[in-house]
Amino acid sequence: MLNRLFQVLALASLATAADPNYEQLFRPFVSPETEIATFSEADFAEVASPRWSTWHAPTFQAAIKPVYEADIQSIVRIAARNHIPFLATLNGHGGNDNYGRVQNALNINLGHFNSVTVDPVHNKLTVGGGVTFGEIAEPLAKAGKEIQTGNAVCVGMVGATIGGGIGTLQGIHGLVLDSLLSVTMVDAKGDMVIASKTVNPDLFWAIRGAGANFGIITSATYQIHDQTNDGNVIIANYPFPVSASRSAWEFVQSYDENIPAPLVLIPSIRYNHTTEEVILQVSVIYYGPMADAQPYLDQVEALNPISSTVETVTQQELKAIFSEGACDRGNRHNVYTVGIKKTDPDTMEEALQEMTEFFETHPTYNGSLAIQRYGSQAMLAVPDEETSYPWREINAYVLFDNIYTDPALDADVDDLSRSLRTKFEATSGFKDPQIYLNYAHGDEPLNQVYGASKLPKLRALKKLWDPQHLFGAGYPIDY
Ligand SMILES: Cc1cc2nc3c(=O)[nH]c(=O)nc-3n(C[C@H](O)[C@H](O)[C@H](O)COP(=O)(O)OP(=O)(O)OC[C@H]3O[C@@H](n4cnc5c(N)ncnc54)[C@H](O)[C@@H]3O)c2cc1C
Fold first, then answer.
1. If I label 84, which of 149, 204, 383, 466 is the partner at 20 to 30 A Cα–Cα?
2. How confident is the model at residue 8 (pLDDT cuts 50, 70, 90)?
3. Whose CA is nearest to atom 6 of ligand 1?
4. Ligand 1, atom 20, residue with closest C-alpha
């Protein structure tokens, strides 16, 4: 009743969508601690979510940083009534092309929704909708527990979960979304809604794969596990001479059919602009004792890499290693991706050649190509129909990670990435391209991202839960 009154008051009080007075419109209906700033105000940068990439970034007329669930309810209702487009974000890592189409919107900064509660007795973790993977690491380690996560500390846990959530513990525990037990969210009407396997199960199905399209999740509860190998992980890096590239790709290929759950392989191609040399590296990660990892490390050693570093680190330290540079803001950062079932050494060789030429002719380009080969056992143990996430048969995620600052490089970077993407798609082992949503570039057909078999139900649920298309500008499901 009170909320209804708020809506009427909000409507009556003000402003056109083209030039709303945000303070006047929202202030009476949010908590005093909620910060509001328009783009021209000095504190805008503190109120708005930070943005990871400068490439095709959304633009915001104003930002609002709510503190309580009721604040988000009011914000959604008032924005909807006044036709103000909005985007709820945390650290702004959602970077595909669609975000650049969000113009003059209202940013809802989820930064205050950062609670983390570990329940070691029932093996549950409950987080606020604005918690990063980095923020859960210490409380979990202290409790002797773990959960599968993405690899970088800066990424939003919920933001990543609702598109899939892939990472180095995937072989053992599966996709991050497979550990999700329930969410509490604000829907398009501004109502608080719970979704789980037993409450609003269809909505819960949709959230696990296309979640950004259905509401703003204020808290999420996950299944957690006892730490593997007391929380210790082995990470080994092997740089290879370019002349030995083929044997490196064939080694990775030998694990196409089967890879042990604790093993992760990440071959990558980068460039050292100081020495003007291509860096070709195979990283091996193993969740287990050194004795168990040794046979795999020996296999790589036998290929005569240039050198090797083998370390035992904690899971937290592993994340810190992965986050180095990756979390840096301010670059013109964009990604392309292909999901593959097969490693094709010829395609890898072509990529190496094309990238070498590109590195040499574009001295300010700092991009890389990495293939993330995680075990599929746990992911495949979940039936396909259980979630809207469509691509459980992907064995490895090819990631073209473009990093540069000069917009003049845009066209050349696109040409290179598209050329490589086409080649990897052709030899992926799949008939049609399978694109991991959280790594998508934004130019892919919806079928390739959400899956043709999932889209009809997703569209029907979208119509039911968000007929005004308030949510999901990052990769909209249309109907
Ligand atoms: C450096 C880096 C490393 C990455 N590493 C991995 C990785 O290892 N594994 C992996 O799977 N992905 C990874 N990603 C991709 C990442 O999962 C996606 O970019 C994801 O969308 C980021 O979510 P965010 O909340 O951090 O970003 P944001 O830009 O804040 O949000 C992204 C989208 O999610 C929505 N969203 C965020 N929070 C909520 C919420 N509480 N309720 C509803 N919607 C919400 C937003 O509205 C937006 O549409 C990485 C990305 C970057 C930039």
1. 204
2. very low
3. 150
4. 160
Band (95; pLDDT cuts 50, 70, 90): confident
Tally the domains of the chain: 3
Q: Which atom of ligand 1 is nearest to the CA of 87?
A: 47
pLDDT 10s digits, 192-236? 999 999 999 999 999 999 999 999 999 999 999 999 999 999 999
Tokens standing for residue 358: 């590109």
Using pLDDT thresholds of 50, 70 and 90, give the confidence band for residue 18: low
Residue 471, in any domain of the structure: no
CA angle 169, 449, 187 (to 5 degrees): 85
Which residue has the CA at smallest separation from atom 51 of ligand 1?
A: 93
Q: Are residues 438 and 343 both part of a single domain?
A: yes
Read off the pLDDT of each residue in 239-267 and give the average, rounded to a whole number: 97
φ, ψ dihedrals at 52, nearest 5°? -75, -45
Checking if the pLDDT of 5 tops 60, the result is no
Residue 93 in any domain: the answer is yes
User: Residue 46: inside a domain, yes or no?
Assistant: yes
Please report where in the chains the tokens 């570039």 appear, as a residue: 441
Query: Mean per-residue pLDDT for 42-48?
Result: 96
Q: What's the CA gap between 302 and 298, in Å, rounded?
A: 6
d(CA 375, CA 256): 10
| Alpha carbon of 89 to ligand 1 centroid (Å) | 8
- Claim to verify: residue 220 and residue 319 sit in the same structural domain: no
76, 93, 157: residue to mutate for ligand 1 pocket, most atoms within 8 A of CB: 93
Tell me if 376 is assigned to some domain. yes
| Sheet with strand 396-404: strands edge to edge | 309-314, 232-240, 277-286, 263-272, 368-373, 396-404, 332-340
Ligand 1 center from residue 385 Cα (angstroms) = 24
Tell me which of 155, 315, 321, 398 to substitute to probe ligand 1's pocket, judged by most ligand atoms within 8 Å of the beta carbon: 155
In terms of domains, do 182 and 236 share one?
no
Q: How far is the CA of 94 from the centre of ligand 1 (A)?
A: 5
Instruction: Kindly report, residue by residue over 102-121, the tens digit of the pLDDT.
Output: 999 999 999 999 999 999 99
Q: Mutate which of 51, 56, 65, 90 to test ligand 1's pocket (most atoms within 8 Å of Cβ)?
A: 90
- HEC secondary structure over 253-284: HCCCCCCCCCEEEEEEEEEECCCCEEEEEEEE
Query: For residue 474, how far is its CA from the centre of ligand 1 (angstroms)?
Result: 10
Residue identified by tokens 């009154």 is 5
